[in-house]
Amino acid sequence: MERWDRTSQLLISAAIGVSRTIGGLPLEHPLDTIRTRWQANPTYSRNALEVVREIYRSKGILGFYSGAIPNTTRRAIKQTYRWPMMLFFPNSYRNHILPSRIQQRYPRLPKILTGLSIANFEILIINPLERVKVWLMTSPKRISLLEFFRQRVNTVDIVRELYRGTSAVVYRQNVSWVTFLYADELTKTKLREYKKTQDLNHLDLFLSGMIVAVVNTGAMMPFDYVKTQKQKFFQNNQSMFEIFRTTLKQDGLSRFYVGWKIYFVQYAIVAILTVNVLDKLEQKFKNSPVNKS
């Protein structure tokens, strides 16, 4: 049987994460741009096609790749660390932190704690890049990345603007990671119990990924909408809770889900690929003896 030392496992999972970013970006970034523009100005467009036309009129084909530089950087960085964390944090909580009686009572607690750990670790890293990405995506015309910094007169102003919308990002990341890892663990466990086998085929993992995408999309979109309102080019200066209250009062709950079909497709791609690869890596590393020397 193959022997895997811990460094090799970390490097392999990090490399897979980065390759996922590079491979998925050409398709996922335009979808992200369309969704973000629609969230930023939901009253201006009735459907995705109108958003597409508006982007093309104001920015041309390259407008669909506005914010590609900060987005690629953001995703490459977070994919590098999140895959090793997804693979090894649950076992760390099981083997070294949580008492066995707690694990018996709450078997999915290691996944929940892993989600919270990753979410709060990455907030400080990804929020500045997320802010610049949204700012560029929602600008009325094509604009240089450097323009963001030219418009800020001093370091304090730049830092404050880079971390605009952090409160919404905190909620979004925590909700996203916990629902993703919990739903991933639960659906695969139930499938294995139903099929009475530990080996899940590609169809099983596809169905699991779709379920995870539905849960993740439904839970996270309201917080993502508020984040976009806080970080867009013509930003909303209300507090996160004021935006929630005003939106619910004026437009109802459905406003938080504007562009949900695009969001679902985008997250279905991510979730399906992630669930499939994550399961294969978990099973491979779990079944392979680890050489710690």
UniProtKB/TrEMBL annotation:
Keyword vocabulary terms for this entry: Membrane, Mitochondrion, Mitochondrion inner membrane, Repeat, Transmembrane, Transmembrane helix, Transport
Which residue intervals correspond to the Solcar repeats?
Answer: 8-92, 200-284
- TM segments? 205-223, 258-278
Question: Which InterPro entries is this protein grouped with?
Answer: MCP_dom_sf, MCP_transmembrane, Mito_2-oxodicarb_carrier
Catalysed reaction, written as an equation: glutarate(in) + 2-oxoglutarate(out) = glutarate(out) + 2-oxoglutarate(in); 2-oxoheptanedioate(in) + 2-oxoglutarate(out) = 2-oxoheptanedioate(out) + 2-oxoglutarate(in); hexanedioate(in) + 2-oxoglutarate(out) = hexanedioate(out) + 2-oxoglutarate(in); L-2-aminoadipate(in) + 2-oxoglutarate(out) = L-2-aminoadipate(out) + 2-oxoglutarate(in)
Superkingdom of this entry's organism? Eukaryota
The record's comment on protein family reads: Belongs to the mitochondrial carrier (TC 2.A.29) family.
Describe its function: Transports dicarboxylates across the inner membranes of mitochondria by a counter-exchange mechanism. Can transport 2-oxoadipate (2-oxohexanedioate), 2-oxoglutarate, adipate (hexanedioate), glutarate, and to a lesser extent, pimelate (heptanedioate), 2-oxopimelate (2-oxoheptanedioate), 2-aminoadipate (2-aminohexanedioate), oxaloacetate, and citrate.
Q: What is this protein called?
A: Mitochondrial 2-oxodicarboxylate carrier
State the species of origin.
Adineta ricciae (Rotifer)
